[in-house]
Design a protein that fits this description.
The protein is mainly alpha-helical. It has one domain: Up-down Bundle (Four Helix Bundle (Hemerythrin (Met), subunit A)), CATH 1.20.120. The protein contains six helices and two strands; from the N terminus they run H-H-H-H-H-E-E-H. The chain has a two-stranded antiparallel ribbon with strand order 1-2. 29% of the residues are buried.
């Protein structure tokens, strides 16, 4: 494993551990708290489902970029994709979603560990960042979760 890949894997693992601790500390009644009131009016449980689906989507996106240099089409509708994928989770319990998140993140870490510097530098279209390197996408993965967790904390404090 290269130094850059090793560093990114370390950050991904640390982010996973922090997310698990965050979600496991929630009281049962908090899982149904609605966090967003505009756009996707997601509960905390749906935000965790979003983590799972986003993680899976980013692994597929990075594989596509490394293989083809393309990424998502220019007209990709991120909001519709997120709504559709989160709604597919259905009745999964919070425990099942946490297990799925761990599994998805471990898959990400395995993939990132296999990347050399040349893979990390490849670029393709990300649905939110636009044209971005694989390394930038990886960094966004752990930052994305941090942002949502901060928003959950803020909503619960109100």
């Amino acid at each position: 494993m290269k130094d850059r890949s090793a560093h990114l894997c370390k950050r991904l693992r640390s982010s996973l551990e922090k997310s698990l601790a965050f979600f496991k500390a929630l009281r049962p009644e908090e899982w149904a708290e609605q966090i967003y009131s505009e756009g996707a009016s997601w509960t905390i449980k749906q935000i965790l489902a979003h983590f799972v689906m986003a993680e899976d989507g980013m692994v597929r996106l990075m594989a596509n970029i490394v293989e083809t240099g393309k990424g998502v089409p220019e007209d990709f509708d991120l909001d519709s994709y997120n709504e559709y994928r989160v709604n597919k989770v259905g009745d999964a319990s919070s425990e099942e979603l946490l297990d799925q998140f761990v599994e998805a993140r471990e898959k990400t870490i395995q993939m990132v560990a296999s990347f050399g510097d040349e893979d990390l530098e490849k670029t393709g279209r990300h649905p939110w960042l636009g044209m971005a390197s694989v390394e930038e996408i990886i960094k966004l993965m752990y930052r994305h979760n941090q942002v949502h967790q901060r928003e959950i904390r803020a909503a619960l404090e109100r």
